[in-house]
Amino acid sequence: MKLLDILKFSEEYLKKYSFSKPRLESEKIISHVLNLERITLYAYFDMELTLEQKEKIKNYLKAMARNRLNFDELPRENENIVPEKDCTFENRELLQKSIEYLAKNEVLDSKLDAEYIFAHVLNVKRTILSMNLRKEITAEETQKIKELLHKRAKEKKPLQYLLGEWEFYGLPFKVDERVLIPRADTEILVEQCKFILKEIENPKVLDIGTGSGAISVTIAKEVPNAMVLGADISTDALDVAVENRKINNVENNLKFIKSDIFSNIKDTDYDMIISNPPYIPQEEYEGLMPEVKLHEPQRALTDNGDGYYFYKKISEESPKYLKDGGYLAFEVGYNQAEEVSGFMKKNGFDVIAIVKDYGGIERVVIGRKSGEKGVDKVS
């Protein structure tokens, strides 16, 4: 039974014994057993409780019904009912010291990163971490927090890799050093493609350089009538993508293939080809922050040249794999939109949209094979 089911069961149980506020009383019991603030309980509605936790809840319910006492009136001499020590002050102090440690080691988002690390180790949501610091942090948990803080501060390992997962477009994704960390800017590419694909009956989509599968998985999830193929040259990356396909339950309409761009692509009737290729020029790559340069896969970041190799190659070859009227959609780097648009036009595409990111940078370029002419700039 999940937490929400147990809350409902407890409320019904106390109703049968004519408790005046059965929901409130059941919330008090369960928040006590789980050592959570009562107001945060419903944030964990799908939590699976252990047998021990369920047994404790059952014992409280029986004791209250037998003695006709509210939870707060139960005798505290019973060892099983004595509230656990409130360690809020000590835990807040530990969190603050962790923030200061990261800041001292030039971690830009020191507060955010420390909160994510604590939430990860304590198995709570970061947004309600501050309301869940009553429980004593064990020696094992403290050691784990210290290890993660050291890796973040001294080794400059990205937070996402430390946590082993990250959210993209509201969906959970496994991430590690085999794949690029999904960025918020790429959500703009997905959003624009989704708008177009929703207007196509049973669209067929190819994602080139799928990496973690962030684009492929999200398109397959958001456009369930689409058939999506994610391609990547890296076997390691594809292994991660397959895991993310399973995590997000899109195995029916998403497949992956090992392919160097179009080398293993057979079909020639795609409605859309999407790509977020390596676009950082080699010169800029050398100056990247250590979190990126030391840990994220180099070949997912740069083409070891001027940053345009894959845009040229995909623009040249994609017309053979697209239907007439099919779409080619790219994420592009800073100041690259105009050049990429030129490659697309040269190969028979009408550029129908250039879309800016949250910082005002032209981040997405979309072209249509034999489509309407003209460029729409969207902020």
Mean pLDDT: 91
Helix content: 40-55%
SS-derived structural category: alpha/beta
CATH superfamily of the largest domain: Vaccinia Virus protein VP39
What assembly state would you assign to the polypeptide chains in this entry? single chain
Provide the CATH architecture of the largest domain: 3-Layer(aba) Sandwich
Q: What coarse outline follows from CA principal-axis ratios?
A: elongated
Beta-strand segment tally:
10
Please give the CATH class of the largest domain: Alpha Beta
Q: What amount of the residues lies in strands?
A: 15-25%
Rg from Cα:
26 Å
Please work out how many helical segments DSSP would assign. 14
How would you sum up this structure, described in words?
This protein has 379 residues and is an alpha/beta fold. The protein has 3 domains: 3-81, Helicase, Ruva Protein, domain 3 (Orthogonal Bundle), CATH 1.10.8; 88-155, Helicase, Ruva Protein, domain 3; 165-378, Rossmann fold. Helices cover 41% and strands 15% of the residues. It has helices spanning 3-16, 22-34, 51-67, 88-104, 110-122, 139-153, 159-163, 184-197, 214-222, 235-247, 282-285, 290-293, 309-317, 337-346; strands spanning 165-168, 171-174, 204-208, 227-232, 254-258, 270-275, 322-331, 349-356, 362-369, 377-378. The strands form 2 sheets. Strands 5-4-3-6-7-9-8-10 form an 8-stranded mixed β-sheet, sandwiched between helices. A two-stranded antiparallel ribbon has the order 1-2. Strand 3 (204-208), helix 9 and strand 4 form a beta-alpha-beta unit. The longest helix is centred in the first third of the chain and has 17 residues, at 51-67. The protein is elongated, with a radius of gyration of 26 Å. The model is unreliable at 371-379 (pLDDT under 50). InterPro entries: DNA_methylase_N6_adenine_CS, HemK-like, N5-glutamine_MTase, PrmC_N, RF_methyltr_PrmC, SAM-dependent_MTases_sf, Small_mtfrase_dom. Its EC number is 2.1.1.297. Keywords: Methyltransferase, S-adenosyl-L-methionine, Transferase. Belongs to the protein N5-glutamine methyltransferase family. PrmC subfamily. S-adenosyl-L-methionine binds at residues 209-213, 232, 276.
